[in-house]
Design brief:
With about 120 residues, the chain is an all-alpha fold. The protein has one domain: c-terminal domain of poly(a) binding protein. It has five helices and no strands. Helix 1 (about 5-20) packs parallel to helix 2 (about 30-70). The termini are far apart.
Amino acid sequence: MPRSQNKVASHRRKKRVLKEAKGYYGARSKVYTVAKYSVEKGLTHAYRDRRLKKRVYRSLWITRINAAARLKGTTYSKLMGALRKKSVDINRKTLADLAYSNMEAFDEIVKLANS
């Protein structure tokens, strides 16, 4: 009995991997076995970095809030503690955007927290 190869499925699988490896350098985009590992590693990095991106942005927001708060004579931790005590529910993303683009509004929030 002849050996079964399932050529259609294997060809489709190779075609999909090589399509995902499009734009990679050299053999990484041409040779299936090399492309397969490159694509798998790329997908692993993509999965990990989607979570890492959230941490990086939160860190950026905290840095911006702290820099703006220090210009107003307070610190990030004191400002956030005062806002929580006053039950002001504003997230770090919005607060950082105000600190970056609208200093007057940020100043009002600092005054509210410190009053």
